[in-house]
Amino acid sequence: MAAVKKNELYSSLWASCDELRGGMDASQYKDYILTLLFVRYVSDKFKGQKYADLKVPEKGSFYDIVALKGNKNIGEEIDKVIARLAEANNLRGVIDNAHFNDASKLGQGQELVDKLTKIIAIFERPEFDLKNNHADGDDIIGDAYEYLMRHFATESGKSKGQFYTPAEVSRILAKVIGVDKITSRDTTVYDPACGSGSLLIKVAEAAPFEISMYGQEKDVSTAGLAKMNFVLHNKAASEVKIGSTFSDPQYFEPNTDDTILRGFDFVVANPPFSTKNWTNGFKGKEYDRFIGYDDTPPEKNGDYAWLLHILKSLKSKGKAAVILPHGVLFRGNAEVTIRKNIIDRGYIKGIIGLPANLFYGTGIPACVLVIDKKDANKRTGIFMIDASRDYIKDGNKNRLRERDIYKIVTTFNKQIEEDKYSRFVPNDEIKIKNEYNLNLPRYIDGSTPDDLQDIDAHLHGGIPVFDVDSMDKYWKLFGNLKYVLFGKFRKGYYKLNVPKDNIRQIIYADKEFSKYANLIDEACERWQKVADKRLYYIDDEVEIKKLIVVLAEDLIKKFENIELIDKYDVYEVLLSYWQDVMADDVYLVSQYGYEVGKEIYLVDKDWDGRLIPKHIIIDNFFAPEKTILDDTEHHISEAQSKLDEFIEEHTGEDGALFEYFNKDKDSMDNKAIKAEVKKLKKENNDDAKILFEYVEQLDLLKEKEKLLKEIKNGLDSEVKNKYPTLSIDEIKKLLIVKKWYDKIFKEIENLYTTVSHNIADRIVEIVERYESTLGELESDVKKYENKVKGHLKKMGFEL
Predict the structure, then answer these.
(1) What is residue 20's predicted lDDT score, i.e. its pLDDT?
(2) Which residues contact 643 (CB under 8 A, 6 or more apart)?
(3) Which helix (H) or strand (E) is 468 found in, with range?
(4) Sequence-separated contacts (24+) of 553-559 with Cβ below 8 Å
(5) Which terminus, N or C, of the chain has the lesser number of Cβ atoms within 10 Å?
(6) DSSP string, 504-548
């Protein structure tokens, strides 16, 4: 099979599926697509296996579905195939919820036949036969499933996208509860509102070995998504049970006649916010969930009902992370009573405030409550993080960047206190001063201070010492620069020592300022030495997800003490490039070896290198040819500009080219001009000369364009022929140094360039703010006013 990049596979799958969706709602269409993906995987993975996780019965495989393409009863027969697979694995009502014979969703007659035949053809593609792929620590098909669910959640809208918790948030929950540090293989993790199971899977992936996962989901079709998700991520033994967590909980301690809720080592949850009907079906069996908190959760708001259920479902030393709306931190009445009891017991280890509009079910901001029962009675306070301002816009949603995730996790796990971001808040401040109100702004002031105006400076001149000294962070690094730029003016005020227009030039020319850039280069070089040892030796045993963790953590260490660049921004440079490009490249190398660097592939009626873009081949092996190509393009550009000027000059109403210019199409009728030139061959008047010159310039331009095409085709052919001749050492250097390192280091360099500009911009801003006193401005206004009056008087107007 030809090498296929994961992102290419996922995006083409989404595009193909979306094209076939028609008018069906994404929340419905997903069931059909994800079911077929599941059946394809299970058929390839387990058919014929004696001790497989799932059985693939006769007439119950994907290839039985393939045989139905074009069949007039295709929908009904697909349902039968999937029913056989479900029956053989005790999955009735779980994986067979999508009805392929539903005319109201898929159309009738031939429309249904054609649509289903096309959908089957998508999943029949050979690149989906990936049963032997485990290069990335889990199946590529599992990642494809996650990719599709994320897109379906985005398309489904607020009311129908709640089945999916964004992977970025899931990763935070997994890492702040410490599942990566477990030592027992009997560890259990539970999600009482598991949706599609993505959150549970992210927690399990963070563990050092396989752990047992248990989920409960009220919606039948969503529970089916979860079960399929588990299988596709090689976690088929994990459980997902159907039913309301409040009225019909499914997990109990053994030998208790279903009277005592089971305790788990870890619980994670992203339950529906502020559920108004959580008591529906409730039969009074509260299983001691609400006892001991001096009140019960409000009937019309289920936030604390979820929290108390989670607390009851934890073992005595259990840990949990639950996503809830900010209201749980400060609302009153019954909730403040319950909150007081939870705080007094020391259960809350931390609170992490998240940005608004992260989730598919709601746009309101949420927080993560981190619960830890171990040594809860000894807890002296709560660690709080306000990460509400750290995100990036992604379509109509906000999204956490890699830097944001890493900063939250690192700050929480290491209990790092940072001004305006995080702090450990002692119990007295919470209980006495703030009366058990946990609203984050009471403890962390994340607001940006106003830029104060100095009235005295505006009246009497000078640059306030306060404004200049507020840049002390920079003056400590570039001590001489401050005194080059500023001198004493009067008490409490500086003056500018240099012309304002020279400020930037002086800053960038400062020796200490210039030398600081060397620190960036040195840090990059130190990281490269470490990265080389891993990136030059990628094979099919590399654990790709662990590889990027090691590379990223080493990079951030190298920039730990470089004050002017935010180490989290450096981290984002690497992780962003990893997600966009590098992860796919590493995956290809791990699957097919560095030899994949010799491959080319077609893209948009053109071609490119599968691993190494052809522009890198050109830059490194065909520099002289590239120079000739660039020069030819430059000559063509000049010739085109000259011709455009000539046309503009002679297409006026009296111009010789006027009648040949089509305004609607903004183009010349060259055919008509050339015909006229033939007639005027022996004419010598001015109009004829203009036509002759136009045709001469046009022919010269066409000749150059023809030459350019020949040069491009020749170079293209040489480059294409170069790929198969590349040695492994050449491929490694081109890929690792010229493609990966060059891009990463350029982006890090841009971070410093931005900082440099910010320093200069701030200094210029301060200088310009106090450049003129109020008296000088009033004098200038008076001067200009008199000048205007003088001009008006000359024109015969009196004010």
Answers:
(1) 64
(2) 694, 697, 698, 701
(3) helix 465-469
(4) 554/527, 554/530, 555/527, 556/406, 558/523, 558/524, 558/526, 558/527, 559/523
(5) C
(6) HHHHHH-HHHHHHHHHHHHHHHHHHHHHHHHHTT--TT--HHHHH
Q: Are 339 and 438 in contact (CB under 8 A)?
A: yes
Predicted confidence (pLDDT) at residue 145 exceeds the cutoff of 80: no
Angle between helices 511-535 and 742-769 (to 10 degrees): 160
Beta-bridge partner residues of 608: 601
Q: What confidence tens digit (pLDDT) does each residue in 656-715 have?
A: 898 888 877 788 999 998 888 888 877 778 888 899 999 999 999 999 999 999 999 999
Q: Considering only 114-128, 287-301, 332-346, 388-402, which range has the smallest mean pLDDT?
A: 114-128
Gap between the Cα atoms of 336 and 308, Å rounded: 13
Q: Does domain 1-156 have CATH number 1.10.150.120?
A: no
**Average pLDDT of 18-46?**
77
Tokens of 492: 């409490």
How high is the pLDDT of residue 3? 57
Q: Which residues pair with 322 in a beta bridge?
A: 269, 369
Between helix 614-621 and helix 686-722 the angle, nearest 10°, is 90
* Interatomic CA distance for residues 611 and 2, integer angstroms: 12
Per-residue DSSP letters for 690-717? HHHHHHHHHHHHHHHHHHHHHHHHHHHH
For residue 418, the 8-state DSSP code is B
Written as one letter, the residue type at 799 is L
Residue 373: alpha-carbon gap to chain centroid: 34
Q: Which residues contact 323 (CB under 8 A, 6 or more apart)?
A: 165, 169, 173, 269, 270, 271, 354, 359, 366, 367, 368
As a whole number of angstroms, the distance between CA 589 and CA 583 comes to 10
The token duo for 82 is 């999937």
Determine the angle formed by the axes of helices 742-769 and 567-577, rounding to 10 degrees.
140
Q: End-to-end alpha-carbon separation of the chain, Å?
A: 87
CA distances to 77, 123, 258, 343 from 58, rounded to whole Å, are 14, 20, 38, 57
The pLDDT tens digits of the residues spanning 730-769 come to: 999 999 999 999 999 999 999 999 998 999 999 999 999 9
β-pairing verdict for 667-668 and 661-662: antiparallel
Alpha carbons 70 and 79: distance in angstroms, whole number: 15
pLDDT over 90 for what percent of the chain?
A: 63
Q: 82-93 burial by CB neighbour count: b if 16+ within 10 A, else e?
A: bebbbeebebee
Q: What is the pLDDT of residue 228?
A: 85
Please, which pLDDT band fits residue 138 given cuts at 50, 70 and 90? very low
Tens-digit pLDDT profile for residues 485-505: 999 999 999 999 999 999 999
Write down the CATH number for the domain with range 185-440.
3.40.50.150
Our measurement of the distance from residue 125's CA atom to the centroid of its chain's CA atoms, rounded to an integer in Å, reads: 28
C-beta of residue 180 within 8 angstroms of C-beta of residue 545: no
Residue type, 471: M
Crossing angle of the two packed helices 109-123 and 6-21, in degrees rounded to 10: 180
Q: Which of 67, 57, 58 is nearest to 88 (CA)?
A: 57
Extents of the domains making up the chain? 1-156, 185-440, 617-725
Residues 6+ apart with CB under 8 A from 499: none
In sign, the C-alpha dihedral spanning 220, 222, 223, 229 is: positive
